[in-house]
Write a structure and sequence with these properties.
This protein is mostly beta strands and 236 residues long. It contains one helix and 17 strands. The strands form five sheets. A six-stranded antiparallel β-barrel has the order 4-5-6-11-10-9.
Amino acid sequence: MSKFLQLLFTLLSLMAIDVKADESIAQPPISENKNSARPDFRIINGVEASYSQFPFTVFIYSDLAGSGAVCGGTLIAPNVVITAAHCLYDGALPISKYNMYVSAGSVYNIENNNDMYFVSRSIPHPSYSPRTAANDIGILILSDSTTVSPSDFAKIYDLPISNDFTTAAAGWGKTSNDVNDTISDVLMTVPLVLSSSSNCKKLNPRYTNNDGMVICTENKNSQDTCYGDSGGPFVY
């Protein structure tokens, strides 16, 4: 599978910034926020992913005063992660960079991965609003460069999208619709089939095409992304 990340929103143009942290990173225990109304995605009926498939994927954990939120992200430079803007918020309030932890270089979540990083800067899209889905993209600048090889960073796909693309999503989110389900210990992936514009317009008259802010896929074989882990890569 080619390592190209399809961004659904306008990409912020930033340069990697190395800021060294003096603190040592303590392993944060994962405590999920089951009352969160955030539109986080999870992988339904997927399979375990290998590291070679998604070496650019990172795990993002936010400590929210006794509970927590989980997202995925994508490395595009040694210490630059692209994720969803709503992953940087707790409701309408931005999450402090001091409460965010990122792990990289492994298919395991942050509880089982010692390759962890602090966040130096948290930058949501300037036009993002927690009340809407528009411009739902953000960037994290990590305190140190990751150990991931530069050849494994994701590349941005910025050409027209064809319906015959073979695509996949990846994440550590919940793997079923059970409200009592917990997040996955390992990275999961699911293939997704792009749908035609005519089919998508039947369900959403405001939909234009897959080159806009939203990419429309078909739910085949009960395989899909759903609520539980978002911000991760959508690749072809």
